[in-house]
Structures are given as C-alpha cells and as structure tokens.
Amino acid sequence: MKKIQWYPGHMTKAMRMMESSLSIVDGVVFILDARCPASSFNFRLKKMAGSKPVLYILNKSDLADERADILLKKIQASGAEAIKCNAAKASSKRDIAGAIAKITEEKRARAEARGQTRVFRFMIAGVPNTGKSTIINLLAGVKRADTGNKAGVTRGKQWISCDGFDLLDTPGTMPPDFTNQTFARRLAYIGSINDDILDMDDIALALIEDLQARYSSRLEERYGKGDGTPLEILDAVCRTRGFLLKGGELDYDRGERAVIDDFRKGRLGRITLDFPEDMDNLKF
Fold this sequence. Notes:
284 residues; alpha/beta; six-stranded mixed beta sheet; 10 helices; 6 strands; 42% helix; elongated
C-alpha cells in the first residue's frame, strides 16, 4: 500500500495562527473521533497547548462500539479530562458545556474570589472531520460554523459566542509526518484525509481487511460475504449493488466508494478501529 502523507500548505499557516492565539484563550478543547481516538490524536497540537488546561471530547460516539469506552477510560486514567458524546444530538449540549467549564474551575473560582467577572475563552482544535464545527454549532444554539463530511471545510479562525463562554474555531490540522501508517490509514477511513490524494483502491481493500478481523459478520450482513480475500468481498459488493460496467464487468470504483461510505455513515453498524494498546505511547 502506498504511504499516506498529507500536510497541505494551509495547515502550516493554521498552526502559526493557533500558536499566536493561545495567549488569549483560557483552555483548549481537542476533538477526537470516538472510533479512533488514538489515531485522531495530534501530538503536535497537544505540545502546542503547553500548560493550558485541556479537555478531550470523543465525538461521534454513536458510530463507535463498546471498545470506545475502554479507550476513553485510558485517556482519563492518564489524568486528562475527557468525555464522549454525539454532537448531532441536542442532549449532548449540557455535558459538553459542563466539561468545558470544568477545566477552568479553579481559575474561575479565583476570579470570583477577587470579585471579577469575565467571559472565558477556549480554542477548539483537532484533525479534520472530527466534528469541531458541529460541536460549536450545538453549543452556540445556531449554525455559526461551516460543517461538512470531508476534510478541510474550516480554513480560517472564527470566534463564536456561546452561553457564558467564547469558542475559537480553528482549521483541522494533521501532524506534519505520519510516522504511524496504521493511524494514517484509519484517518483515511473516517475522512480526515482528503480523498482526492488517496488511492481509493488501496483504502477500500485495506478497510475491508481490517473489518474482516473483527466485524466479518457485518460484512456478511451487508454484502452477503464476510470471508475470503478483500477483493472477493469487493466483488460481492459490486454484484449485490449491481455496480456493473458495459459488458458485465464489475465497477470497482463504485464498489470501493460504497464500502467507504457505508462505514463512514454507520451503515455497517457501530465500529471502533483503535485498540487500547494504541494509547500506550501517547501523552494526553
């Protein structure tokens, strides 16, 4: 499989902007994908945050299975503040807002003891397509930030006023180098990497292979085949969906897109890609 590498020029600019904005925020909120919180952890962003209070939100928990709870507990066991949520549900608003406020509890108490009242500010950061803008819109109560199901929707910074605090929306940024290609592959699955730069043949077949290891029954239910080689399963996808070219040849392009889209939209059920051991060398 071809090595995955994606760090467009606008991300360098975004990182500089974020570094310059840290002095005016009280804390940093990192959005991770609950299906792969280790893979979607950007060590460079954490290093940039320095001593600022940090909250990790494992978003899209509705798409992840029970293993995501183990991953969440591992982050919490490291001493970091972390919650999971589904930002598409209005009921998540209270939990998210409460968790954001919690990371500056002591600072708020000191300010109140001095008779000071002020609006606290938080930076929202993470890799692309983890739901940063969806969370901001939920907290703001109206659509303030652009959302989309592909990488790179947010390009510039924007301040959003919420109930009692302000949020700084920032562009999704990747590590400058994918030393862990397993993580890179999982980020490709969830749409954090621009599809246009990927070999979708490789990505679709790799996704099928990874799903076979733990979720073969889901492939069987969806496509009528869960065993065999990844290519044989892709053949079954094309035949099941009627993806045929002239002359009866299988339309692999449509089949590959269908598998990836089914995974991203939860049609294959709740799936978690990361494992507890993936957390071992990460500094939350």
